[in-house]
Structure formats: structure tokens, C-alpha cells
Specification:
Number of strands of chain A: 0
Largest sheet of chain B: none
Oligomer: heterodimer
Strand content of chain B: under 5%
Distance between the termini of chain A: 41 Å
Radius of gyration of chain A: 16 Å
Number of strands of chain B: 0
Strand content of chain A: under 5%
Largest interface: A-B, 26 and 36 residues
């Protein structure tokens, strides 16, 4: 990515337009982000046909209400 | 060593033993590839029946075959161009079978929304492979984008074992879109830089 860009934009660009190899720290960060989304997002938020409940994120959201 | 590198190293221990056994038995790698797709069809049936844990276990077995075929070919000095072609084609069947299993499940549950999410994820997963294959007929290498087959398969297993298949379909779908876009952009840039003249 060329030209002056802010750090968040560069991070997002590099995340979506991926050029890193497996077993790099960038790959690890992406894997952790994906696992966090899969395991922490409440199935109810996604209208999951096979799972239900609020999950850890829903529990946290309830606590903050 | 990175976290994912460590997991890869740990998983390689039992796989090395299986590879050695296949080499000792002189099993042809193309047969391993074909057995892999047959087992993946069983996994797809389990997914279609909503038996996610069973499907996950079957997927592990199927993907052992998928993973070791190339390595057995190298050990046996049986690497051929047809073997590479056969592996790629059979892998697409395996991919599609798993998605069809899920589409069947969601359609029996009358969940058109997830039928569509899964169908779109399948479309972009297939396009991920196609864009690379087509690009590499024009440029030397097009190995960019995150969501390749190993990532998809591991995500399928995670979704099956933890009953989070809906979230997994979203991840595969969205990241496959970006992978396809990534490959198109990369190929465009490579061709623009190396072949400025118009190509019909």
C-alpha cells in the first residue's frame, strides 16, 4: 500500500489483502481473531440454526447493561 | 516458534508414522487421494444429518489422507503431473461435498438465510482455488490471501466440534471474498508490471 496512510488503515489493508506465510506472528494474530469471533460471538446474534444461547460475549453485554 | 507453528509441529508426529506406514505398504498416492474424498462424503452425510461431532471425527480421518498423499508421493518417488492434477480436482469435490452437506441440513431446517450464506461461502471457496489456478497459468505464483483449503478444513472441524458452524460459515464466506479479490488484484498488478501490452 503506497502513500501516507494511518496505522489502522494499514493494519486492515494487510489483514484483508493477505501476503503473509503460515507460522508467522501475523498469521497467529489472524487465527486468534478468527477463533475469538467463532467462539465468543453469541449464536443468537448470528441466528445460528444449530446452536443457541448468549455465549461469553452476550454474558458480558448483559453485565454491562 | 509461533503458536500455529507449534501446533503444526505437534500434529506432524503422528502423521509421520502414518506416512511411513503408507510408504512401507507402497500405497499409491492417487489411491490415498481418492479414499480421502470418499471419507469426506461420509463427513458430508454426517453434517447433513446434523451430527457435527461425528462429522468432525470423520473429517479428521479424511484429511489425514488428503494431507499425506503428496508426502507419500515424494517418499515413493511417485510424483507425477497427473497426480497433482488429480489431487486438485479431488480436493474440490471434497470441499463441495462438505458445503452440500451443510446446505442440505439448513434446507431441511427451512433456514433459507443459512442456505444462502453456505452457498455463497462455497462459491467463493471454489473461486479461491480457481483464481489461483487460472492466475498461475499467466504468472509464476499467486499464493496470496488468507483463506486457503487448510484454513477452511480446520475451520470446518472447529465448527463441527464446538457446534459453531454458523459463525464458521460467515468467516469462510467473508475471508474467501477477500482472498479472491486479493488474487485478482495481485494478478492484475503482476501482469501490468511484466506485460504492459494488451492481451486478448
Amino acid at each position: 500500500m503506497k502513500g501516507p496512510v494511518t496505522l489502522p488503515v494499514r493494519i486492515l489493508w494487510n489483514a484483508f489483502f493477505w501476503t503473509y506465510e503460515r507460522a508467522t506472528w501475523q498469521y497467529d494474530v489472524m487465527v486468534v481473531a478468527i477463533l475469538a469471533f467463532v467462539w465468543l460471538t453469541p449464536p443468537d446474534w448470528l441466528n445460528d440454526p444449530m446452536a443457541s444461547g448468549d455465549g461469553p460475549l452476550g454474558y458480558l453485554a448483559d453485565l454491562l447493561r | 516458534m509461533t503458536f500455529t507453528g507449534f501446533i503444526g509441529t505437534v500434529c506432524m508426529f503422528p502423521l509421520r508414522a502414518i506416512i511411513a506406514a503408507c510408504v512401507a505398504l507402497q500405497i499409491h498416492p492417487n489411491i490415498l487421494t481418492f479414499v480421502g474424498v470418499l471419507i469426506n462424503v461420509l463427513a458430508a452425510c454426517a453434517l447433513g444429518n446434523g451430527r457435527f461431532i461425528t462429522a468432525g471425527v470423520i473429517m479428521i480421518v479424511a484429511n489425514i489422507f488428503d494431507f499425506i498423499d503428496g508426502k507419500v508421493a515424494r517418499e515413493l518417488n511417485a510424483e507425477t503431473k497427473f497426480g497433482g492434477f488429480w489431487d486438485s480436482v479431488i480436493d474440490r469435490f471434497s470441499d463441495i461435498a462438505l458445503f452440500i452437506g451443510l446446505i442440505y441440513l439448513y434446507s431441511t431446517l427451512r433456514r433459507t438465510d443459512y442456505v444462502m450464506v453456505t452457498a455463497l461461502a462455497m462459491m467463493f471457496a471454489i473461486m479461491t482455488s480457481y483464481t489461483r489456478a487460472r492466475a498461475e497459468s499467466l504468472i509464476a505464483k499467486c499464493k496470496v490471501g488468507f483463506m486457503e483449503r487448510p484454513e477452511r478444513i480446520v475451520l470446518f472441524m472447529i465448527g463441527a466440534f464446538t457446534n459453531r458452524m454458523a459463525a464458521v460459515m460467515w468467516v469462510i464466506g467473508v475471508l474467501s471474498v477477500f482472498t479472491v479479490a486479493d488474487r485478482i488484484i495481485y494478478t492484475y498488478r503482476e501482469l501490468r508490471d511484466t506485460q504492459p501490452e494488451a492481451v486478448a
